[in-house]
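Explain the record.
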Amino acid sequence: MWNIKEEDLDGFRVTCSSRLSPEGAMVFFIGGIVYASVFMFFIFMGGLE
């Protein structure tokens, strides 16, 4: 397929080190769910009155 050697991957590792890790993505999604849930809670409580 492609002739990629182990020595050529150093530049790729440097590029990928600044990108979002899977752990960071999980925290982002959980934070988004919590953030949306707070607004849904206030909307629901406002509708009960």
